[in-house]
Amino acid sequence: MLVYIVFLLFVFSLLALDLGVFHRKSHVIGFKESLGWSAVWITLGLSFSALVYQAYDHHWWGLGSTVDAVDGLMNDGKLAATKYLTGYVVEKSLSVDNIFVIAMVFGSLAVPARYQHRVLFWGILGALVMRGAMIGVGSALVTHFHWVLYVFGGFLILTGLKMLVMKEKEEHPENNPLVRWIRKFFPVTREYHGQHFLVRAGDPASLESSEPGVVAVADPVVAAAPKGKWLITPLMVALLLVEFTDLIFAVDSIPAIFAITADPFLVFTSNVFAILGLRSLYFALAGMIDQFHYLKPALALVLLVVGVKMLAAKWLKGMLGDSFNFTILGVILAILACGVIASLVFKKKSPAEC
Fold it and tell me: Which residues contact 126 (CB under 8 A, 6 or more apart)?
Protein backbone atom coordinates (compact mmCIF):
# COMPACT_ATOMS: atom_id res chain seq x y z
CA MET A 1 0.00 0.00 0.00
CA LEU A 2 2.90 2.37 0.77
CA VAL A 3 4.21 2.17 -2.80
CA TYR A 4 0.80 3.28 -4.14
CA ILE A 5 0.68 6.22 -1.71
CA VAL A 6 4.17 7.37 -2.75
CA PHE A 7 3.31 7.00 -6.44
CA LEU A 8 0.01 8.91 -6.12
CA LEU A 9 1.71 11.71 -4.17
CA PHE A 10 4.21 11.99 -7.02
CA VAL A 11 1.44 12.08 -9.64
CA PHE A 12 -0.67 14.64 -7.79
CA SER A 13 2.44 16.80 -7.30
CA LEU A 14 2.95 16.79 -11.07
CA LEU A 15 -0.70 17.67 -11.68
CA ALA A 16 -0.63 20.45 -9.06
CA LEU A 17 2.49 21.88 -10.72
CA ASP A 18 0.79 21.62 -14.10
CA LEU A 19 -2.44 23.43 -13.18
CA GLY A 20 -1.13 25.66 -10.37
CA VAL A 21 1.99 26.98 -12.10
CA PHE A 22 2.23 26.30 -15.83
CA HIS A 23 -1.48 26.51 -16.67
CA ARG A 24 -2.76 28.70 -13.85
CA LYS A 25 -4.36 31.05 -16.36
CA SER A 26 -6.61 29.70 -19.08
CA HIS A 27 -5.08 30.12 -22.52
CA VAL A 28 -5.09 28.53 -25.94
CA ILE A 29 -2.59 25.65 -26.08
CA GLY A 30 -0.51 26.05 -29.24
CA PHE A 31 1.00 23.26 -31.32
CA LYS A 32 4.56 23.98 -30.17
CA GLU A 33 3.58 24.07 -26.49
CA SER A 34 1.57 20.85 -26.79
CA LEU A 35 4.49 19.05 -28.45
CA GLY A 36 6.79 20.20 -25.65
CA TRP A 37 4.46 18.95 -22.94
CA SER A 38 3.84 15.70 -24.82
CA ALA A 39 7.60 15.13 -24.88
CA VAL A 40 7.76 15.79 -21.13
CA TRP A 41 4.97 13.32 -20.25
CA ILE A 42 6.24 10.63 -22.63
CA THR A 43 9.77 10.99 -21.25
CA LEU A 44 8.43 10.62 -17.71
CA GLY A 45 6.40 7.56 -18.70
CA LEU A 46 9.33 5.84 -20.41
CA SER A 47 11.84 6.82 -17.70
CA PHE A 48 9.62 5.27 -15.04
CA SER A 49 10.49 1.85 -16.52
CA ALA A 50 14.01 2.27 -15.10
CA LEU A 51 12.54 2.69 -11.60
CA VAL A 52 10.30 -0.34 -12.23
CA TYR A 53 13.40 -2.36 -13.18
CA GLN A 54 15.21 -1.46 -9.97
CA ALA A 55 12.15 -1.85 -7.73
CA TYR A 56 11.32 -5.35 -8.99
CA ASP A 57 14.92 -6.49 -9.23
CA HIS A 58 15.56 -5.58 -5.59
CA HIS A 59 11.99 -6.30 -4.39
CA TRP A 60 11.42 -2.83 -3.00
CA TRP A 61 8.12 -2.59 -1.07
CA GLY A 62 7.64 -6.31 -1.78
CA LEU A 63 7.27 -5.81 -5.54
CA GLY A 64 8.01 -8.87 -7.65
CA SER A 65 7.55 -11.30 -4.78
CA THR A 66 4.40 -12.98 -6.12
CA VAL A 67 3.63 -15.00 -9.24
CA ASP A 68 1.99 -13.10 -12.10
CA ALA A 69 -1.39 -14.76 -12.71
CA VAL A 70 -1.24 -14.08 -16.47
CA ASP A 71 1.92 -16.03 -17.37
CA GLY A 72 2.78 -17.79 -14.10
CA LEU A 73 6.19 -16.08 -13.89
CA MET A 74 7.85 -14.10 -11.12
CA ASN A 75 8.41 -10.54 -12.30
CA ASP A 76 12.10 -9.73 -11.99
CA GLY A 77 13.45 -6.32 -13.05
CA LYS A 78 13.77 -7.06 -16.78
CA LEU A 79 10.41 -8.80 -17.11
CA ALA A 80 8.57 -6.18 -15.05
CA ALA A 81 10.07 -3.33 -17.10
CA THR A 82 9.11 -5.10 -20.35
CA LYS A 83 5.54 -5.62 -19.17
CA TYR A 84 5.30 -2.03 -17.97
CA LEU A 85 6.52 -0.67 -21.31
CA THR A 86 4.21 -2.99 -23.26
CA GLY A 87 1.26 -1.91 -21.14
CA TYR A 88 2.26 1.74 -21.49
CA VAL A 89 2.48 1.51 -25.29
CA VAL A 90 -0.84 -0.34 -25.57
CA GLU A 91 -2.67 2.09 -23.28
CA LYS A 92 -1.05 5.11 -24.95
CA SER A 93 -2.03 3.91 -28.42
CA LEU A 94 -5.60 3.16 -27.36
CA SER A 95 -5.86 6.61 -25.76
CA VAL A 96 -5.24 8.10 -29.21
CA ASP A 97 -8.62 6.70 -30.26
CA ASN A 98 -10.08 8.59 -27.32
CA ILE A 99 -8.74 11.82 -28.82
CA PHE A 100 -10.99 11.40 -31.86
CA VAL A 101 -14.09 11.41 -29.64
CA ILE A 102 -12.88 14.25 -27.41
CA ALA A 103 -12.32 16.42 -30.49
CA MET A 104 -15.86 15.65 -31.60
CA VAL A 105 -17.26 16.56 -28.14
CA PHE A 106 -15.41 19.88 -28.04
CA GLY A 107 -16.40 20.70 -31.61
CA SER A 108 -20.07 19.86 -31.15
CA LEU A 109 -20.38 21.82 -27.90
CA ALA A 110 -18.21 24.67 -29.26
CA VAL A 111 -15.95 24.59 -26.19
CA PRO A 112 -13.67 27.65 -26.36
CA ALA A 113 -10.05 26.62 -27.02
CA ARG A 114 -8.81 28.51 -23.96
CA TYR A 115 -10.87 26.31 -21.61
CA GLN A 116 -10.26 22.90 -23.20
CA HIS A 117 -7.15 22.24 -21.11
CA ARG A 118 -9.16 22.84 -17.91
CA VAL A 119 -11.80 20.31 -18.98
CA LEU A 120 -9.18 17.69 -19.82
CA PHE A 121 -7.26 18.33 -16.57
CA TRP A 122 -10.26 17.62 -14.34
CA GLY A 123 -11.31 14.84 -16.66
CA ILE A 124 -8.01 13.08 -16.03
CA LEU A 125 -8.46 13.31 -12.27
CA GLY A 126 -11.81 11.57 -12.63
CA ALA A 127 -10.25 9.02 -14.98
CA LEU A 128 -7.59 8.16 -12.38
CA VAL A 129 -10.27 7.37 -9.81
CA MET A 130 -12.43 5.33 -12.23
CA ARG A 131 -9.53 3.36 -13.68
CA GLY A 132 -8.06 2.73 -10.24
CA ALA A 133 -11.34 1.16 -9.14
CA MET A 134 -11.66 -0.90 -12.34
CA ILE A 135 -8.06 -2.12 -12.09
CA GLY A 136 -8.57 -3.14 -8.47
CA VAL A 137 -11.65 -5.18 -9.36
CA GLY A 138 -10.03 -6.62 -12.49
CA SER A 139 -6.87 -7.64 -10.65
CA ALA A 140 -8.88 -9.43 -7.98
CA LEU A 141 -10.93 -11.26 -10.62
CA VAL A 142 -7.86 -12.38 -12.60
CA THR A 143 -6.06 -13.54 -9.45
CA HIS A 144 -8.96 -15.61 -8.12
CA PHE A 145 -10.68 -16.61 -11.37
CA HIS A 146 -8.09 -17.29 -14.07
CA TRP A 147 -10.79 -18.08 -16.65
CA VAL A 148 -11.69 -14.37 -16.68
CA LEU A 149 -8.59 -13.88 -18.86
CA TYR A 150 -10.23 -15.89 -21.63
CA VAL A 151 -13.36 -13.74 -21.38
CA PHE A 152 -11.20 -10.61 -21.65
CA GLY A 153 -9.30 -12.10 -24.60
CA GLY A 154 -12.49 -12.96 -26.49
CA PHE A 155 -13.89 -9.50 -25.78
CA LEU A 156 -10.75 -7.80 -27.17
CA ILE A 157 -10.82 -9.92 -30.34
CA LEU A 158 -14.49 -9.09 -30.94
CA THR A 159 -13.80 -5.39 -30.33
CA GLY A 160 -10.85 -5.44 -32.72
CA LEU A 161 -12.87 -7.18 -35.44
CA LYS A 162 -15.71 -4.70 -34.95
CA MET A 163 -13.30 -1.78 -35.40
CA LEU A 164 -11.96 -3.36 -38.61
CA VAL A 165 -15.21 -4.22 -40.38
CA MET A 166 -17.71 -1.62 -39.18
CA LYS A 167 -17.88 1.76 -40.85
CA GLU A 168 -17.67 4.80 -38.64
CA LYS A 169 -20.88 6.70 -38.16
CA GLU A 170 -20.94 10.29 -37.15
CA GLU A 171 -22.01 10.76 -33.56
CA HIS A 172 -23.54 13.93 -32.21
CA PRO A 173 -22.72 14.49 -28.52
CA GLU A 174 -25.77 16.68 -28.06
CA ASN A 175 -27.89 13.59 -28.78
CA ASN A 176 -25.99 11.49 -26.26
CA PRO A 177 -28.33 9.93 -23.65
CA LEU A 178 -26.12 11.38 -20.88
CA VAL A 179 -26.54 14.91 -22.26
CA ARG A 180 -30.32 14.47 -22.58
CA TRP A 181 -30.47 13.18 -19.00
CA ILE A 182 -28.43 16.14 -17.71
CA ARG A 183 -30.62 18.67 -19.50
CA LYS A 184 -33.76 16.95 -18.22
CA PHE A 185 -32.84 17.04 -14.54
CA PHE A 186 -30.41 19.98 -14.24
CA PRO A 187 -30.68 23.53 -15.57
CA VAL A 188 -27.92 24.18 -18.13
CA THR A 189 -26.92 27.72 -19.07
CA ARG A 190 -27.03 28.67 -22.72
CA GLU A 191 -23.70 30.53 -22.66
CA TYR A 192 -20.22 29.72 -21.36
CA HIS A 193 -19.31 31.69 -18.23
CA GLY A 194 -15.54 31.83 -18.31
CA GLN A 195 -13.90 28.74 -16.85
CA HIS A 196 -16.76 28.07 -14.42
CA PHE A 197 -18.40 24.63 -14.34
CA LEU A 198 -21.20 25.92 -12.11
CA VAL A 199 -22.75 29.37 -11.76
CA ARG A 200 -25.33 30.79 -9.35
CA ALA A 201 -28.12 33.03 -10.52
CA GLY A 202 -27.81 36.54 -9.12
CA ASP A 203 -24.14 36.11 -8.17
CA PRO A 204 -22.01 38.44 -10.35
CA ALA A 205 -18.78 36.83 -9.13
CA SER A 206 -19.72 33.45 -10.58
CA LEU A 207 -21.45 34.76 -13.70
CA GLU A 208 -18.79 37.10 -14.99
CA SER A 209 -15.42 35.95 -16.23
CA SER A 210 -12.23 37.29 -14.66
CA GLU A 211 -10.31 36.25 -17.77
CA PRO A 212 -8.88 39.21 -19.71
CA GLY A 213 -10.49 39.66 -23.09
CA VAL A 214 -13.50 37.51 -22.26
CA VAL A 215 -16.77 39.45 -22.24
CA ALA A 216 -19.67 38.25 -20.13
CA VAL A 217 -22.72 37.50 -22.28
CA ALA A 218 -26.31 37.90 -21.14
CA ASP A 219 -27.75 34.43 -20.54
CA PRO A 220 -31.56 34.04 -20.69
CA VAL A 221 -31.45 30.77 -18.73
CA VAL A 222 -29.62 32.47 -15.86
CA ALA A 223 -31.93 35.49 -16.01
CA ALA A 224 -35.00 33.27 -15.70
CA ALA A 225 -33.63 31.20 -12.81
CA PRO A 226 -34.53 32.05 -9.18
CA LYS A 227 -31.86 34.06 -7.39
CA GLY A 228 -29.32 31.81 -5.68
CA LYS A 229 -30.09 28.74 -7.82
CA TRP A 230 -27.05 26.81 -9.06
CA LEU A 231 -26.84 26.05 -12.77
CA ILE A 232 -24.58 23.84 -14.86
CA THR A 233 -22.60 25.48 -17.66
CA PRO A 234 -21.86 23.82 -21.02
CA LEU A 235 -18.28 23.43 -19.77
CA MET A 236 -19.57 21.01 -17.11
CA VAL A 237 -21.52 19.13 -19.79
CA ALA A 238 -18.28 18.80 -21.78
CA LEU A 239 -16.45 17.53 -18.67
CA LEU A 240 -19.11 14.91 -17.94
CA LEU A 241 -19.00 13.74 -21.57
CA VAL A 242 -15.20 13.46 -21.43
CA GLU A 243 -15.49 11.39 -18.24
CA PHE A 244 -18.16 9.21 -19.83
CA THR A 245 -15.99 8.75 -22.92
CA ASP A 246 -13.03 7.63 -20.81
CA LEU A 247 -15.25 5.16 -18.97
CA ILE A 248 -16.32 3.62 -22.29
CA PHE A 249 -12.75 3.41 -23.57
CA ALA A 250 -11.55 1.97 -20.26
CA VAL A 251 -13.83 -1.01 -20.88
CA ASP A 252 -11.53 -1.83 -23.85
CA SER A 253 -8.19 -0.71 -22.44
CA ILE A 254 -8.36 -2.32 -18.99
CA PRO A 255 -8.84 -5.88 -20.38
CA ALA A 256 -6.00 -5.13 -22.84
CA ILE A 257 -3.50 -4.46 -20.07
CA PHE A 258 -4.54 -7.67 -18.29
CA ALA A 259 -3.43 -9.54 -21.42
CA ILE A 260 0.08 -8.45 -20.48
CA THR A 261 0.19 -8.66 -16.69
CA ALA A 262 -2.03 -9.06 -13.66
CA ASP A 263 0.43 -7.26 -11.39
CA PRO A 264 -1.75 -4.39 -10.07
CA PHE A 265 1.16 -1.97 -9.68
CA LEU A 266 2.33 -2.45 -13.28
CA VAL A 267 -1.25 -2.21 -14.56
CA PHE A 268 -2.02 0.95 -12.59
CA THR A 269 1.23 2.83 -13.25
CA SER A 270 1.23 2.11 -16.99
CA ASN A 271 -2.39 3.30 -17.19
CA VAL A 272 -1.69 6.46 -15.21
CA PHE A 273 1.32 7.53 -17.26
CA ALA A 274 -0.55 6.76 -20.49
CA ILE A 275 -3.47 9.06 -19.64
CA LEU A 276 -1.37 11.79 -17.97
CA GLY A 277 -0.11 12.93 -21.36
CA LEU A 278 -3.51 12.65 -23.02
CA ARG A 279 -4.22 16.40 -22.76
CA SER A 280 -0.97 17.46 -24.43
CA LEU A 281 -1.35 14.74 -27.04
CA TYR A 282 -4.86 15.98 -27.79
CA PHE A 283 -3.67 19.52 -28.53
CA ALA A 284 -0.80 18.15 -30.65
CA LEU A 285 -2.98 15.81 -32.71
CA ALA A 286 -6.43 17.46 -32.71
CA GLY A 287 -5.68 19.40 -35.87
CA MET A 288 -4.15 16.40 -37.66
CA ILE A 289 -6.59 13.64 -36.74
CA ASP A 290 -7.92 13.23 -40.29
CA GLN A 291 -4.39 12.67 -41.60
CA PHE A 292 -3.92 9.48 -39.57
CA HIS A 293 -6.71 7.54 -41.28
CA TYR A 294 -4.85 4.21 -41.01
CA LEU A 295 -4.32 4.55 -37.28
CA LYS A 296 -7.73 3.16 -36.33
CA PRO A 297 -7.16 -0.12 -38.27
CA ALA A 298 -3.74 -0.32 -36.60
CA LEU A 299 -5.37 0.05 -33.17
CA ALA A 300 -7.84 -2.69 -34.12
CA LEU A 301 -4.91 -4.99 -34.97
CA VAL A 302 -3.29 -4.14 -31.62
CA LEU A 303 -6.48 -5.25 -29.84
CA LEU A 304 -6.46 -8.47 -31.88
CA VAL A 305 -2.81 -9.14 -30.99
CA VAL A 306 -3.29 -8.65 -27.25
CA GLY A 307 -6.53 -10.66 -27.37
CA VAL A 308 -4.80 -13.60 -29.08
CA LYS A 309 -1.89 -13.25 -26.65
CA MET A 310 -4.32 -13.51 -23.76
CA LEU A 311 -5.98 -16.64 -25.15
CA ALA A 312 -2.75 -18.36 -26.26
CA ALA A 313 -0.29 -17.19 -23.59
CA LYS A 314 0.88 -20.70 -22.66
CA TRP A 315 1.39 -21.72 -26.31
CA LEU A 316 3.28 -18.51 -27.11
CA LYS A 317 5.44 -18.91 -24.04
CA GLY A 318 6.33 -22.46 -25.10
CA MET A 319 7.14 -21.38 -28.66
CA LEU A 320 8.95 -18.09 -27.99
CA GLY A 321 10.33 -18.74 -24.51
CA ASP A 322 10.25 -16.39 -21.56
CA SER A 323 11.05 -13.45 -23.87
CA PHE A 324 7.66 -13.67 -25.57
CA ASN A 325 6.50 -10.52 -23.74
CA PHE A 326 9.35 -8.60 -25.37
CA THR A 327 8.34 -10.05 -28.76
CA ILE A 328 4.74 -8.92 -28.28
CA LEU A 329 6.00 -5.41 -27.49
CA GLY A 330 7.95 -5.38 -30.77
CA VAL A 331 4.92 -6.56 -32.76
CA ILE A 332 2.70 -3.85 -31.24
CA LEU A 333 5.26 -1.11 -31.96
CA ALA A 334 5.62 -2.39 -35.55
CA ILE A 335 1.84 -2.31 -36.12
CA LEU A 336 1.54 1.25 -34.81
CA ALA A 337 4.52 2.41 -36.87
CA CYS A 338 2.99 0.88 -40.02
CA GLY A 339 -0.31 2.64 -39.31
CA VAL A 340 1.39 6.03 -38.96
CA ILE A 341 3.67 5.55 -41.99
CA ALA A 342 0.81 4.31 -44.18
CA SER A 343 -1.28 7.35 -43.18
CA LEU A 344 1.52 9.71 -44.17
CA VAL A 345 2.41 7.93 -47.44
CA PHE A 346 -1.10 7.15 -48.68
CA LYS A 347 -3.00 10.36 -48.20
CA LYS A 348 -6.76 10.20 -47.73
CA LYS A 349 -8.60 11.57 -50.74
CA SER A 350 -10.96 14.46 -50.19
CA PRO A 351 -14.59 14.09 -51.34
CA ALA A 352 -13.83 16.37 -54.30
CA GLU A 353 -11.09 13.99 -55.50
CA CYS A 354 -13.25 10.88 -55.32
Answer: 243, 246
